[in-house]
């Protein structure tokens, strides 16, 4: 998560837009209900699936085999199993036709259903959907089952001018929902990554200043009891998933892929979200594998494989002198390979709040730069000044972190603020060897207090002992 941070102003604008379009949608919603609540007698023959174009930069993702055409529509929106097939709502699924309306009507139908409804994007079909906000609350839980392909319009030129360029599919105020299936969500990001406003895409490979919007593929806002399971999602124009103000989020067995050089394509970003479980997931992309923003707590990440990419990140926190509170985060039994960072905590000078009770355990590193890093001087330009306040970092436990590091950076780096030291950093069973070449850089510490429970490889002798006196003198915000 490096280039775009939503300012409070931008999020206010977002919310008011969201609210307005929510209102608008409830009106159109009522209309759709009439047109679609009668029973259609038309038999819709699904078209034969069109072959999907494959772009050369893609990593191979197995495409589902096309299936023989399913039995003709029986006249009900649901069959006995409560499945709402998008084709019943007029979707074509040829990858070209705009199927947004069908998905909206299916959503409205599902949302008003008294029993849990399944919206199905069937196997062998590719549904092109425009940027849309799906709003709740709904009468009961909704399952969006993607067995085929869902995709947005192809790049900024085909994005309707009046659609948000910040996001593609948004789920807002949903109480219980699952996205699952054996299909693919294809963000078609390439044309967005190549925009001349992107990093190093300017004249002579420069990074132009100013905004450069690209849509986040899947966003959840103010929602709870969410599951994302078994899906493949690839090539998002920007973040693949972002959760804001959500509760009880369960992500299991998903595959996220984008090229290593695709800008800002974080796998999963969470913000102001708690009770999050991310299990059995594989992410290779061009930015953070998982990024954990302000206001997150009770996050458990287990059996994730990250890389190539930028590793797992808590932060950046405290930007623009903001307060950030993050606590009770665990990352365990995972692999991070060929990444710019392993497990990172990054905060800006001048913030406030705290990051505490973070455990990184049982993590295998493979050719990672900065496998273990705390950076309280995070800055994206050259003109950040040191300030007296900082997000307080404490109670960070690293245990059983083994593997190899890229010798361009030290294997351990604890850079803490002058006025707000990091405290209670514990290292146990850390063994990091150079992936190639000789160990050149020693672990780095600045104003970092903590203990070694076991000897480490390489040895760490720079952690300060005990508790710094300044944490009693300074005005530290414990959240
Ligand atoms: C309902 O539709 C789903 C998906 O098309 C299908 O798998 C299931 O067999 C159907 N059930 C009945 C009873 O037709
Ligand atoms: C965007 O513009 C199209 C055509 O001009 C119109 O049909 C559509 O309703 C507009 N959408 C929104 C969200 O305003
Ligand atoms: C989430 O689910 C739990 C139990 O399934 C339920 O008690 C709770 O009300 C749900 N959350 C919300 C916000 O509805
Ligand atoms: C870890 O996740 C991978 C990828 O989903 C899965 O294949 C593997 O079985 C998981 N391992 C365990 C121990 O659950
Ligand atoms: C920490 O988070 C885990 C879930 O990841 C939860 O089970 C546990 O109760 C939390 N601990 C505290 C002290 O809240
Ligand atoms: C900020 O403080 C750190 C640690 O004292 C120091 O290394 C760095 O040069 C300072 N940066 C600036 C811009 O003064
Ligand atoms: C240090 O942090 C660990 C967790 O890493 C915690 O269990 C312990 O209580 C902390 N010690 C103090 C003195 O706060």
UniProtKB/TrEMBL annotation:
The active site is at residue 310. It holds the Pfam family Glyco_hydro_28. Residues 31-74 are annotated as: Disordered. SUPFAM superfamilies: Pectin lyase-like. One of its GO terms (biological process) is carbohydrate metabolic process. GO terms for molecular function: polygalacturonase activity. InterPro entries: Glyco_hydro_28 (IPR000743), PbH1 (IPR006626), Pectin_lyas_fold (IPR012334), Pectin_lyase_fold/virulence (IPR011050). It comes from the Eukaryota. Residues 59-71 have a biased composition (Pro residues). It is found in: Secreted, Cell wall. Residues 31-41 have a biased composition (Basic residues). Keywords: Cell wall, Cell wall biogenesis/degradation, Glycosidase, Hydrolase, Secreted, Signal. The keyword Transport does not apply. Its main location: secreted. PROSITE patterns: POLYGALACTURONASE. Residues 1-24 form the signal peptide. Belongs to the glycosyl hydrolase 28 family. This is Polygalacturonase family.
